[in-house]
Amino acid sequence: MREFRGIQGWIRGLTVHPVQKKRDERLFIDEKHSCPSCQRPLGAEELETTLYVCPHCRHHFRLTAWERIRYTADEGVFQELSADMETTNPLAFPEYEQKLAAAVRKTGIKEAVVTGLCKVNGREVVLAVMDFRFIGGSMGSVVGEKIMRAMLVGAEKKLPVIVFTSSGGARMQEGILSLMQMAKTSVATQALEKNRCPYFVVLTDPTTAGVLASFAMLGDVILAEPGALMRFAGARVVAGTIKEKVPDNFPLSQYHMERGFIDMVVPREELKKTLGFLLATHPVPPGGKG
Amino acid sequence: MSEKLIREKIAELKDLAEKSNVDLSRECMEMEAKLGASRSPENEAWVRVELARHPERPTTLQYAERIFDDFVELHGDRGYGDDPALVGGIAILAGRPVTFFGHQKGRNMKENMKRNFGMAHPEGYRKAMRLAAQAAKFGRPILTFIDTPGAYPGVSGEDRGISQAIANNMKQFSELAVPIVVTILGEGGSGGAIGIGLGDTVLMMENAYYSVITPEGCASILLRDPTKARYSASLLKLTPQDMLAFKVIDRIVTEPPAGAHGDLAGASAAIKTAILESLEELSRMGTDALISRRHEKYLSLGVFQEQEARRRSLLQRLRDFF
């Protein structure tokens, strides 16, 4: 992988991880699963061969960030960006520190998104992957900052940026600062716009609220996995505000495609091929402002 | 006297005034001033929330009538329809043309049904975007007014892409080559607020709140108890003072002693002065400087820990990316 030039100061927080095609036992949540959709028991070995898609009912399991990276990146290295960034408790919100500590213990990652540089189908890209297990994949200051920096690295290095979203929305414990991350990440997409860098979004289950209503909806091409829940307002907020009853699993990705808000619903086993096609058809033109 | 008692007393007085056709507004004001004095620090956040939602809180169009020399309302997003919950148009402010838009609540149940309680649909946000682009084309400064519990969360909003509309506004507003002054009038409700909330100067009324979620929403989701809204309001740090501390707003607009709900003329004058002063300051900046300052402001919002050197060098380099 090429050496970095420029942006030395803040990109230096690189941590290099190997991307192996061999299954890493630590990455899986459980050895034994039953499908949350059809309830049939499934073994980890079996799920591994199907990329965690239920062979019976096609339910797409949620993936951890590192599983997703393993399924998406080429074999080689994943250079993690901003690995040393730490979440604080700016509002002194009760029990936030404990919640963070528990999430770190449970997931083995430091925040709800992992960002880095790797190759996908032979092309160097910036990859950002959210992890729903980390406080519902919610976006606070660190998630917003890491997404923004991933985009700025893409702009500076003239690389495509691919983001996998999975999030309940803004992180309430960081209050208004979380809301501002919506603005921050949306403004950051302009860096990709001006440098004519491709920006691809893959919406995975679930992507809602503050994340859906910001960088998730701004891709040049927006893909989604089948059955991914996507909505602006959660059922409880809807019920509390306008007394309207919305089913928990509504609306899903297919619904949004029919209404024209996403480009394609792509089954997991075809994702890499589709991303490969998009990368091949989107060379970054020379020039731009970066 | 407890806050509740004072409130009851005020309601009683107003009721009496209406029935007997006597002017009791001075008495009402006095009572409301007393209410202000009963504010304890614990109640502070909740008082802001309640006053922001005060049924007599002036609306965007009421302010427009008093702040502008003249204005016309323009309708429609040119794609789906016109949203009465988010209004806008062209106005003359102190002799100069400006573009304005903002959430519009109703002042009674009938009006609120029409205005959807100030909860805008995607077509409202797209109308705002259309007016903003038009303003940039003709070099008119943009004034936005925020007063919403949130964007409309129902299925009709999802169907027409509320998430896309809000996201796109934030993305496009960051590039508009004219000054943008945002004023938070009352409720600054989450995505519905930031959907027209990106600007060069953000003003906030003294009795307003700005939050990622309503106190009720936070109480029911995080505290699992919707009745704890008062407590969750204090946790969310949503007052104008909090916003200043987090650098989310630039200035608090002091309301007249009776509050904006008791003195529309006074509140309008205060807003007008603050907007004119902000525009004066922004007009001295070149367009490029204005836009890069806007980028830097939004790209640097957030609090976290990292080696300081890295953070600084990022900010120094931001300009290169745009």
Q: What would a concise description of this structure say?
A:
The complex is a heterodimer of chains A (290) and B (322). With 290 residues, chain A is α/β, with parallel strands linked by helices.
**Principal-axes shape call of chain A:** globular
CATH H level of chain B: which superfamily?
Answer: 2-enoyl-CoA Hydratase, Chain A, domain 1
Would you count the extended β strands of chain A for me?
A: 12
Supply Rg of chain A. Answer: 18 Å
Sheet/helix structural class of chain A: alpha/beta
Helix content of chain B: 40-55%
How much beta of chain A, percentage-wise? Answer: 15-25%
Pick out the low-confidence regions of chain A.
Answer: 1-13, 24-28
* CATH class call of the largest domain in chain A: Alpha Beta
Radius of gyration of chain B: 20 Å
Separate helix tally of chain A: 10
How far the N terminus sits from the C terminus of chain A, by CA atoms, comes to: 21 Å
Q: Strand-residue fraction of chain B?
A: 15-25%
Total strand count of chain B, please? 9
Number of domains of chain A: 2
Distance between the termini of chain B: 57 Å
* Sequence of secondary-structure elements of chain A: HEEEHHEEHEEHEHEHEEHHEH
Please identify the top-level CATH class of chain B.
Answer: Alpha Beta
Please provide a written account of the structure:
The complex is a heterodimer of chains A (290) and B (322). With 290 residues, chain A is of the alpha/beta class. Chain A has 2 domains: 8-22 and 64-280, Alpha-Beta Complex (2-enoyl-CoA Hydratase, Chain A, domain 1), CATH 3.90.226; 29-62, no CATH class. Chain A contains 10 helices and 12 strands. Chain A has helices spanning 8-11, 44-49, 65-72, 96-107, 141-157, 175-194, 209-212, 235-242, 253-258, 268-280; strands at residues 15-19, 32-34, 41-43, 76-80, 86-87, 113-120, 123-130, 161-167, 199-208, 221-224, 230-231, 264-265. In chain A, strand 2 and strand 3 form a beta hairpin. In chain A, helix 5 packs parallel to helix 6 (175-194). The longest helix of chain A has 20 residues, at 175-194. Chain A is globular and about 50 Å long. The two termini of chain A are 21 Å apart. Chain B has one domain: 2-enoyl-CoA Hydratase, Chain A, domain 1. In chain B, strands 1, 2, 3, 4, 5, 6, 7 and 8 form an 8-stranded mixed sheet that branches. In chain B, strand 5, helix 9 and strand 6 form a beta-alpha-beta unit. Chain B is globular, with a radius of gyration of 20 Å. Strand 5 of chain A pairs antiparallel with strand 9 of chain B.
